[in-house]
Amino acid sequence: MQVQETNDYSIASKHSMVHRGYFIDDFMQYLSPKLKRRSPLINIGYYVRAVVVNEGIKLFLTLEPQVECQIVSLGAGFDTTFFRLVQKHENIKYFEIDFSDVVKRKISYIKNNENVISKLISPQETSFGLTSKHYSIISQDMTKIEELQSVLTGIGFDVGKPTLFFSECAITYMPEESSTKIIHWASGLENVMFMVYEQINPNDGFGRVMINHFSTIESPLKSVEKYRTKEDQIYRYKSCGFTDSYSVGAFEIYNKILSQEEHKRVLNLEPFDEWEEWHLTSSHYTLSAATKGLFEKASKFFSSFSTSRDFVQYDSTLGWDALIELGLKLYAHSALPIWNSDAVLIIGGFGISNDSKHKRMEQMGLLNLKTMKVEKITPPSVDGITWDCLYHTCSLLSDSKNETSFLLYGGRTSPVNQVNKSGFVITIKKDGEDVRISGRKVEHNESYPEGRRRHCALNVNGGVFLCGGLSVEKGVLLKVLDDSWLFTHDEQWVKLDSKMSPRFSHSVTGHCNQIFITGGLSQEFEPLNDLWSFDISANVWTYYDLNILPRYSHTSHYINDWIVLIGGVNYLSENQPGICIINLKDKIYKEFKLPESKETSPVMLHNHCSILLSDLNSVYVIGGGGNCFSFGTSFNEYLILFHCNKILNR
């Protein structure tokens, strides 16, 4: 795929998003006549992009609403912005620039549809494109600034008029020196705003997947390695001559300007359960703007957004050891130490099967912690059990050297199909080299929890504590739960009093009768940064007022009055969770940043499982990763070891 072809993918994705009801655009169907349905993750990702881009252009138009102004769209592709704007803003002159092939095809679509061409006054074709009173589209090499300026001037561009230069994922494909020259040239205007929507954060796990994708399709991003962060973006535009410069993460804008009603409407348009990748995608894009003259008042808009720097800073960077390739590539699974921690049983998840297909995992994995080898096991067919499920829990009931029993509960096969709602008691025995697995359904009493996924469960004195999660009701795709339950020794469900707010994808750990719950996504789909404890014997809930980073899809462990949080996700563009340690006695905490990921084996600490080793000093991370937007699915390939004693003993 060449750079020009990124336009075709982008416009098809926008069309899919509009067709599904996310965003209103009456002209999209005419410039993208063939509908290609995209996944819910692609649709909602492009919706964030549409909302943020639309808000940026609206800002420009409202700063000086009575003044005749110009918009120059650099690498416009098949964008429909002008045709949506002209109905409300008759005092703008709009210029689009792109490759010759893209321009020719767009002009053809415009000319051949009366609903589009009728919006243009006195359209005329030229050797380099099409011009009209308010709209012009030209093919021009943007690396040749003098030629570009000459052509623009010849079709009515006026350097004296207030102007917005805009690039939506376009100049990032140009050589960095060339795109910087355009920025320099634009800064020479007296009243000007330069606005860019493009990628940042190339060096974490998700960023590596993103960068590798664009390189693979022969459309490498050529500025992001030099201008990696929002601060780098701000520096870039100021160093090019602009008075003020700003950069805000895409989701930070989206989340603030969207009403809660609209947020919920969008999330219920179609079945959706890829929260981590949605937030990670949005945290790797930024809206950057630079201003001079009349548009310096834009500072009020950009300063209204909280920045990542409002949160706690990292104490330092904590590394890891990538030990071995497990031969298991999967995420959204469960992992349970069995046989007195001689082995780890891995159930379910989405991954790469024996036939190299991406699918829900039907086979179990048995990791021998002595040999560090994985044996794949085909589980028995048990009436009612869905083994190939995602976002379920497996919680220990009893354990010995040769036999372990646990409760398999919940999960899903699709966002609308909840499974294992009754719960099943599973027993795994070893007899020499033989492994036998059996299971039976839990018989319900009158009171029992509703089916769910992305909940938490924990062994407590031979029983299981279960809380929160995400459920489905008739007419409601996303029901966030706040209930707490105890599965007792005699296999009865007892509902507990719960003061914890509704949440899902949170984490639970514990010690003796104390249970500790951290983070999650709230009922408003906001990442949480709280810590609750629950004394199950005294039935007492306690809230810890801390200011840790918001996170969900993380794991946690109790180690000698410390809680260790492993990984997770939020939507902050420069404060993604790494490792956090919380001292329960002193109520202090430290955040540790994860190291940069390698290009060849990106690591993402979400949708993973972690196992606390018996020495209480180290944690194994097993699996993890996800479907990284349009960049492809990525799995953590290695068994990862964190040495917790290095930070707990500082």
Automatic annotation (TrEMBL):
ATP-binding in keyword set: no
Keyword tRNA processing: yes
Keyword tags: Methyltransferase, S-adenosyl-L-methionine, Transferase, tRNA processing
Enzyme's top EC category: transferase
Its EC number(s): 2.1.1.290, 2.3.1.231
Pathway entry: tRNA modification; wybutosine-tRNA(Phe) biosynthesis
Signal peptide coordinates: none
A molecular function (GO) term: tRNA methyltransferase activity
Any Pfam family hit: LCM
Catalytic reaction equation(s): 7-[(3S)-3-amino-3-carboxypropyl]wyosine(37) in tRNA(Phe) + S-adenosyl-L-methionine = 7-[(3S)-(3-amino-3-methoxycarbonyl)propyl]wyosine(37) in tRNA(Phe) + S-adenosyl-L-homocysteine; 7-[(3S)-(3-amino-3-methoxycarbonyl)propyl]wyosine(37) in tRNA(Phe) + S-adenosyl-L-methionine + CO2 = wybutosine(37) in tRNA(Phe) + S-adenosyl-L-homocysteine + 2 H(+)
Gene Ontology process terms (BP): tRNA methylation; wybutosine biosynthetic process
Family: Belongs to the methyltransferase superfamily. LCMT family.
Record-given protein name: tRNA wybutosine-synthesizing protein 4
